[in-house]
Amino acid sequence: MRTLLIFALLFTLPAFAGEGDLHLKDGPGKQLVEANCSMCHSLDYIQMNSPFLDRKGWEASVNKMIKAMGAPVAETDIQKIVDYLASQYGK
Ligand code: HEC
Q1: Chain-centre distance for alpha carbon 30
Q2: Tell me, what's the pLDDT at 23?
């Protein structure tokens, strides 16, 4: 009974979080963002912040993720990620 409950929770939780319907806009760098920015939190952090952040803001945000949060983003990917965020989700 208990295992059944755990299984039920495992399968329903992601549905509640709405993870399934979140799609980032298409554009160069999208895969990089999906790969680098979804391991700690959901990608809707990006959508939620798009009204507030311009290129400078996204640059600062990505750097904060790397320096303060420890996001393992390759040096060579940083600019591509910032470019994508600024062009698709810039203020
Ligand atoms: C190592 C874990 C980790 C990774 C990887 C990561 N983040 Fe975050 N991010 C966090 C944490 C922790 C917070 C703060 C969450 C909170 O306060 O609820 C956060 C918050 C945010 C916020 C909300 C605004 C803010 O500054 O608090 C944005 C936007 C964001 N992340 C974007 C990104 C982007 C873009 C990437 C990919 C480059 C990324 N994150 C990768 C850990 C991570």
Answers
A1: 10
A2: 85
